[in-house]
Write a structure and sequence with these properties.
Strand 8 and strand 9 form a beta hairpin. The two termini are 36 Å apart. This protein has a 7-stranded mixed β-barrel with strand order 1-3-4-5-10-11-13. It is mainly β. It is globular and about 60 Å long. Helix content is 7%, strand content 49%. The chain has a single domain, classed as Acetoacetate decarboxylase-like (Beta Barrel), CATH 2.40.400.10.
Length: 273
């Protein structure tokens, strides 16, 4: 009998695979920061055939606290939460592909090893980082909020890598909105990712194993109560990071979107090879 599994390591039953088969179900809170930055820094990160957007100085950060489960598993409480709960920070750069709006996933960090692997399959190419969120409790005498994006609640998040804080943001939701109020964000979707697996042959073959642009296929997307308010955003420095080149010149707003969806897979829209 041959070993089984969706990803290595394979085993007799397939349970040892780091990532389960698609599709996957996601649900949780999405934090979005809309900001302006140096348009030349954005352009320098866009691989042809992607080109600059109609607003070439605008960009997005989003960060999630999500749960993800295999679509065929209905007994989610039986799965170790360390295999399902995760945090992520993504820098999205609005751009165009063949004249159509999209957004490039330029940088991404997450806090689970299985999500690193999952993201590389999908082209998002995460790095491991420590991602933290400020917490309070509704019974604390100093506050009446519970840090879930409700009005009047200040949310603080940051990501650290190699002992250096590389992302620090806050959102102070002050009003309720609906998804139609976020067309400046949703009109730049779906997200485009650049998949790249390097040439590891010896002697070198002269070309990467995989190099393409792809977009994730999502279904059954639902949103909860969306809130909006003022926000702050700052990028730090690290010898292995360059996100600080996108330092905000102006923060336009922050948003909290409870959401859920099914991820079916990817669609390759351009092959470099």
């Amino acid at each position: 009998m041959s070993p089984k599994g969706f990803t290595r390591p394979f085993s007799s039953t397939g349970k040892a695979s780091l990532v389960p088969p698609l599709p996957w179900r996601f649900a949780g809170d999405l934090y979005v920061i809309h900001f302006k930055t140096n348009p030349d820094a954005i352009s320098a990160l866009l691989p042809p055939p992607l080109s600059k957007s109609d607003k070439p100085d605008e960009a997005f950060l989003w960060s999630t606290h999500f749960a993800v489960y295999p679509d065929n598993n209905d007994i989610i409480q039986d799965i170790n939460p360390s295999r399902t709960q995760y945090n992520v920070v993504v820098i999205g750069l609005p751009c165009k592909f063949n004249g159509t709006n999209t957004m490039l996933s330029a940088f991404q960090w997450c806090d689970k090893d299985w999500l690193v692997l999952m993201s590389w399959f999908l082209g998002a190419c995460s790095k491991m980082a420590q991602i933290e969120e400020s917490k309070t409790h509704p019974l604390m005498s100093a506050t009446k909020s519970n840090q879930t994006g409700e009005l009047g609640t200040n949310i603080n998040r940051w990501a650290s890598r190699n002992g250096e804080k590389i992302v620090n943001f806050s959102i102070n939701p002050s009003k309720n909105i609906n998804i139609n109020d976020l067309k400046f964000y949703t009109d730049n979707l779906p997200l485009t990712c650049e998949r790249h697996f390097p040439d590891v042959h010896y002697p070198p073959s002269g070309k990467p194993e995989v190099h393409d642009l792809c977009q994730m296929i999502m279904k059954d997307t639902q949103f909860g109560k969306i809130t909006a308010g003022d926000a702050t955003l700052e990028f730090g420095k690290d010898e292995n990071e360059e996100v600080n080149l996108l330092q905000p010149t102006k923060v336009l707003g922050g948003y909290v979107l409870p959401m859920g969806f099914r991820l079916m897979g990817i669609n390759i829209i351009h092959k470099f090879l």
